[in-house]
Amino acid sequence: MAGRRLIQGLTSPWSVGFSAFGLAYGGYHVWDSTQSGTKYDLHEDLAGKTYIVTGATSGIGQATAEELAKRNARVIMACRNREKCVQVRRDIVLNTRNKQVYCRQCDLEDFDSIRTFVQKLSKGKFELDRIDGIVHNAAMMQSERAVNKDGIEKTIATNHLGSFLLTGLLLDKLLAQPNPVRIVFLNSNIIDRKCDLNLADFNSENAGKKFDGYEIYKHSKLASALFTKELSERLSDTNIHVLMADPGRTKSNLSAQMDGQTFFLSRWLLKIVSFGMGERRTEKAVRPVLFALCDPDTSDENGLFIDRERHQQPWNDVIMDAAKREKLWNVSVTWTRLGEHLKKMKEELGEAAAIQISENNTPTIESATAGSGGGRSWKTLWLW
Q: For the whole model, what pTM was predicted?
């Protein structure tokens, strides 16, 4: 009798349901641990250091800001949506008990917004005495073509040109510092998948071709990688080190505007596919970013591409093409109007600098704080 009751208990719907739930829950954790990669934790105390993180209101950007705050760093959240930033900032402060987390508006598709952001960090009540690292995380992907107020397609403006201009406007400040600086660009191995630079249609205006948001995103990330590599070359032998980190496939809202995310069924099918392909949670995906930004093992490294397991990854042939990198660099100087923004910023900051704009919009500078070598100095090597 007792045996029969035991069997009935084990085969009851409740028992079977709880057993199935336990197996599924255990299986998920086994899967999650294998997808998380090798264990890593940054043990550095970052007190006294300052980091700028773009796109810090969600995804890896938010995770990066919180991890830096946990380690006592001062964090500048450079975000497009200030209201959302304030809400996220509050949660980070509550979770980390670090009040040195600040919201600063910076819309990477709006070049005037970028200049205003840098001006505020350079002089006045928001001035930073030092910057130890910049994380270029902000990115977007959209299903339909849209342009910013300068007529530039928003994906390329946000994912590459905005970061280009932000770095260019900050460079004099970074070079003048006695402390080392690390600039980390987030990217993906999708740039190795049938991807090449197409400057002939850089603004995605080809009327005979349907706008493909994913392909445009790929090309914008390739442009960012080309810039990362070229910047590391130009800043070698300075106090600035440039690295690129691939966090791997990560749960985020990056593709929220794509067609596949707007329909309920397709959205869930994409989630299942992403789950099977090893999508990582942001708290795991942030590891290679922290490794590139703060780890002692990368303190002297420059020009590295770090994969999700924090190993060095080779640059592909397109990125190693120095002529393509230089051509993109010159196009980026022109499209962002770097010279005009640099001149206006220095005038508004009251700095003594004579800036001339050539016919192709390339700026040349003779700064009052330049070295004694004459002509181009270490303060202006960005413009080589």
A: 0.82
